[in-house]
């Protein structure tokens, strides 16, 4: 997959089917959209994804936005799905002020050579978001492309959206989030050194420090799965700031893995959160923390056994 980033000056050399969107969370609606784009490869079109970086929401808010899916996670997803081109188009005021038809002609047609444009029915683009799927359809004959509009996917009567997924994750409702995403909510990173306190208490752990832009669920303990080197391990994860043992605001995902006792510092892992167990607590002493850890680990054994 070729990634085009940090430039608005480019032109693809082949005709494409283009998916337009933010793709935060990559929920079932996004998956449907991307599947439609990659299907066009059978017609001789390269599969392309167009997204703004930063997102318009982040640009106009002037504040860092916490995302369901980081840029790197999106890249991994798109590559695995068979996307040929990922365009991370810079978003700044001049781009925000671009007339919708200019965006269609200059960006989609002239730069991306779009012969098929796939988007959700809520797509918006151009100055003040005035461009929509109707405009895409109106200009299709003039500019020689096909438009495919994807209907919203619903779950139990509600439209699946990034907002819906975000709401459930912020409640700690990981099971419903998994349903909406059709996969478990996850984070990836390099295992870092911690305080080694867990090992001293008989519960060695692996530590991930998620990037600041990653949306985190409520602080607490979760049943989890960790993927390392092609294998999956069940675990118990504490998301939070470890109030009993240190004074820090740096959010940590610390996981005890069942049947695992290897040194993987500096190695890449993926952590998937399955179910919220209890809120993070501050204990009076390490003995209280150790007792609760024993209970969490025992409860996890029973939960994973079903």
Distance between the termini: 40 Å
Largest sheet: 6 strands, parallel
> How are strands sequenced across the largest beta sheet?
1-4-3-2-5-6
Number of helices: 11
Low-confidence stretches: none
Q: What Rg do the Cα atoms give? A: 22 Å
The structure class reads alpha/beta
Mean pLDDT: 92
Percent helix? 25-40%
Shape: elongated
| N-to-C order of helices and strands | EEHEHHEHHEHHEEEHHEHEEEEEH
How big a fraction of the residues is strand?
25-35%
Query: How many β strands by DSSP?
Result: 14
Short précis:
The protein has 306 residues and is an alpha/beta fold. The protein has helices at residues 28-39, 56-61, 71-81, 93-96, 100-111, 133-138, 140-143, 162-171, 174-181, 197-200, 286-305, and strands at residues 2-5, 16-20, 46-53, 85-90, 114-120, 146-150, 154-155, 158-159, 185-190, 205-208, 220-228, 231-240, 252-257, 268-279. The protein is elongated and about 75 Å long.
Key terms for this structure?
alpha/beta, six-stranded parallel beta sheet, 306 residues, elongated, 14 strands, six-stranded antiparallel beta sheet, 32% helix
Give an overview of the whole structure.
The protein is α/β, with parallel strands linked by helices and 306 residues long. It contains eleven helices and 14 strands. The chain has helices at 28-39, 56-61, 71-81, 93-96, 100-111, 133-138, 140-143, 162-171, 174-181, 197-200, 286-305, and strands spanning 2-5, 16-20, 46-53, 85-90, 114-120, 146-150, 154-155, 158-159, 185-190, 205-208, 220-228, 231-240, 252-257, 268-279. The strands form three sheets. The protein has a six-stranded parallel β-sheet with strand order 1-4-3-2-5-6, sandwiched between helices. Strands 9-14-11-12-13-10 form a six-stranded antiparallel β-sheet. Helix 8 packs antiparallel against helix 9 (174-181). The longest helix is centred in the last third of the chain and has 20 residues, at 286-305. It is elongated, with a radius of gyration of 22 Å. It starts with a strand and ends with a helix. The model has no long low-confidence stretch (mean pLDDT 92).
């Amino acid at each position: 997959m070729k990634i085009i980033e940090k430039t608005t000056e480019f032109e693809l050399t082949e005709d494409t089917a283009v998916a337009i969107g933010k793709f935060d969370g990559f929920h079932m609606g996004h998956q449907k959209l991307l599947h439609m784009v990659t299907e066009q490869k059978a017609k001789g079109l390269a599969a392309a994804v167009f997204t703004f970086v930063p997102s318009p929401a982040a640009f106009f808010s002037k504040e860092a936005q916490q995302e369901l899916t980081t840029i790197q996670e999106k890249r991994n997803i798109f590559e695995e799905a068979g996307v040929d081109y990922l365009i991370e188009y810079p978003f700044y005021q001049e781009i925000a002020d671009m007339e919708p038809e200019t965006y269609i002609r200059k960006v989609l047609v002239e730069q991306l050579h779009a012969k098929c444009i796939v988007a959700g029915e809520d797509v918006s683009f151009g100055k003040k978001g005035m461009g929509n799927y109707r405009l895409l359809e109106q200009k299709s004959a003039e500019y020689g492309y096909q438009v495919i509009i994807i209907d919203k996917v619903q779950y139990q009567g509600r439209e699946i959206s990034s907002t819906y997924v975000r709401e459930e994750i912020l409640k700690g409702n990981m099971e419903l989030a998994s349903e909406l995403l059709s996969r478990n909510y996850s984070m990836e990173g390099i295992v870092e050194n911690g305080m080694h306190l867990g090992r001293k208490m008989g519960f060695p752990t692996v530590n991930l420090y998620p990037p600041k832009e990653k949306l985190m669920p409520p602080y607490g303990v979760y049943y989890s799965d960790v993927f390392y080197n092609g294998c999956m391990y069940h675990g118990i994860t504490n998301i939070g700031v470890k109030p009993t043992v240190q004074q820090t605001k740096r959010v940590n995902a610390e996981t005890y893995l069942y049947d695992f006792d290897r040194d993987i510092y500096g190695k890449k892992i993926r952590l998937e959160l399955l179910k919220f167990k209890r809120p993070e607590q501050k204990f009076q002493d390490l003995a209280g923390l150790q007792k609760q850890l024993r209970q969490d680990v025992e409860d996890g054994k029973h939960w994973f056994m079903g």
